[in-house]
Every structure is written in structure tokens, then in C-alpha cells.
Amino acid sequence: MYEPIRGKSVHSPAGDQASFPHRSREEELDIQLAGHLAALLAVTDELRSLSPDEAAGDLDEAAAELSRHIARLRRGNAPARSAVVRAIHEPALSALHVRAHALAGRALVVAASRADTTVAILAARRMEAHAAQAEGAGAVGHSDHVAAGHSAASADGPALAAA
Q1: Residue-wise pLDDT tens digits, 7-16
Q2: pLDDT digits (tens, 9 = 90+) for 45-69
Q3: Spatial distance between the Cα atoms of 104 and 69, rounded to a whole number of angstroms
Q4: Between the chain's N and C termini, which has fewer beta carbons within 10 Å?
């Protein structure tokens, strides 16, 4: 009644499965975490270029630590750095802190997923620092979000440090 199938199905993969590049879950998380940290580094560099000299020390230290972790996750490849200098208004500076807070939160989630306590602690510290700066600059409508993120980071902090 039916003719038997003589060739391979069009739905079967072409070629050998070993010819496809496969990455482990750890490698995928490394790539994702490095991306989040690189984005946070870019915002940190932008904030550094716009900050007064007395606030620059904390941002310089954070940028150096972020760079070290990015290079480690990328197996020695240093991240690209920018030196952006432009006029900015206070609300835009506050928006940068809000963005940095969100990026640090994403990095914290991925770091916790891959059980990288060092990066999780770094991300939680950056969240706290940017939340304080955003609240100090008077980010409109952001205080509830910052407070919720801050309490979540504080609640996870001891658990991550114990891990």
C-alpha cells in the first residue's frame, strides 16, 4: 500500500551531530554573565566620566573589579572600555544609576544561578551603591523599585555569602 522510506527524512539533522558547536550550561552562563557585567561596566565608565572627582574612587574600584571578572569569564579577553564625556543633566544621571541598578540585578541573578559567590556579592554591592545614588538624585517613581531590589539583594546576600 505504501512505499517504504528509502532515504533520510528531511527532518533529520544534516551531517554528524559532533560537527555542531555545543556548549555546556556553565559555558552559556559564563557568556551571559560576562555580557551583563560588560554592560554594567559600560554604564559605570559613563558614570565615572560624569562624576565629580570625590565620587570617582568608588566607581574606579568597581570598574577595575568588573574588568577582572569579565576577563576571567572570557578566559583572558579584556573588555572594551569607553571614555565618554558629554554634558548631562541631573535627571539623565539618575537614569544612568537606575540602568546600572537593573544591570547589576541581572548579573546577580545569573551569578547566583551559576553559584559564583564573588560576582554575586559584587553585583549586590553595585545594586546598593546605585540605589543610593538614584534615591539621592531623586529618581522619580523609582524609589519603590529600588527599595524592593535593595531588600531582595540584602535577603540574598547572607545566603550567597554562606554558599
Answers
A1: 766 666 665 5
A2: 888 887 777 667 888 899 999 999 9
A3: 13
A4: N
The set of cell numbers assigned to 28 is: 552559556
- Which positions ≥6 away from 73 have C-beta within 8 Å? 30, 31, 33, 34, 37
Residue 141: per-residue pLDDT: 44
Read out DSSP for 38-66? HHHHHHHHHHHHHS-HHHHHHHHHHHHHH
Distance (Å) of CA 145 to CA 66, 105, 131: 24, 12, 9
Instruction: Give CA–CA dist 114/43, Å, rounded.
Output: 24
Question: What does the DSSP assignment read for 89-155?
Answer: -HHHHHHHHHHHHHHHHHHHHHHHHTT-HHHHHHHHHHHHHHHHHHHHTT-TTTHHHHHHHHHHHHH
- The residue length of the chain stands at 163
CA-based nearest residue to 133, from 61, 53, 59, 49: 59
pLDDT confidence of 127, banded at 50, 70, 90?
Answer: very high
Cell numbers linked to 14: 544534516
60 phi/psi in degrees, rounded to 5 = -65, -45
Grid coordinates representing 83 are: 571614555
